[in-house]
Design goal:
Length: 331
Amino acid sequence: MAQINGNSTLKVVSLFCGCGGMDLGIQGNFKYLENHYEALPFEIVYAADNDAYAAKIYNDNFSHKCEVKDVRDIVPSEVPDHDILLGGFPCQSFSIIAQNPPRLGYKDDRGKLFFEMVKVLKEKQPRFFIGENVKGLLSANKGQAFPMIIKEFEKAGYYIHFKLLNASEFGIPQKRERVFIVGFRDFDDYFNFKFPQPYTLTKNKIALRHVIDKEADKDEKWFFSQRAVEGMLRVREKMNKGRVQDIDQPCNTISSHLAKVSLNGTDPVLMVNERYRRFSPREASNIQSFPRSFKLDSVSENRQYRAIGNAVPPVLMWKVANSLTNSCLIP
């Protein structure tokens, strides 16, 4: 591995780490489908999340451990020194207060959480940070919220690149679109960085069929009842429900809602022998590009769905972190 400023690794702090999608991706050294994603020059020195069930999954899969803690209770000065800060911060509830100039307002406390990243950045001044969020952040509040969030990161002392990435264009069987925000303390790093380029043409995208678990087809608990099917069929044409996935294409975006998936919702479902069925937690994990060796079973299936649905796809994170390594770290 190339030496980086005399050291072999850069230290990482991970906030809102969940079950570890970003963390697995930035560390690398895992296999997904037929590809091995090599180890990257990053070492996680601190991870925190307020969801004890997601943290349980995390701690079953990493040698370092996630601390169960509300990020608002973290004292920035007590965070270990680090080179890169990660955070898939919650994005709900942004609003704009009608002032001149307008300011960010919040319908509830969840919308404030990106400020916790900003506080750590101001205090610790790591060389980089990577944030991740849903596509809707770009258009929230008629497009006014996102520029204000970027401005807060800039005020913390960072140059910013951001880009909307579609997981299906990076070897993942899911049409998941997410915004990645990459911050740089030094202008040279900012100037040199390039986001990974999509390499999967439409005809070559990974199909859902490659991650379907045929064993799940044999388990009755994953199938919807006849009553649920009849209820959906009565309103399908009018409400565009019953969204059966084409297994020869990437899957629609999965979410934490898979724990309560309904045929009367917009959740992706499968059709097996003329019967509707939901994805199993392992299939959801496969769709998200977690390796098959990733352990899930220490929490309930509902908690597995929630943790996996909220995660950043590890392969997509690996692509971003690898681009950072190649453009800014390796001479």
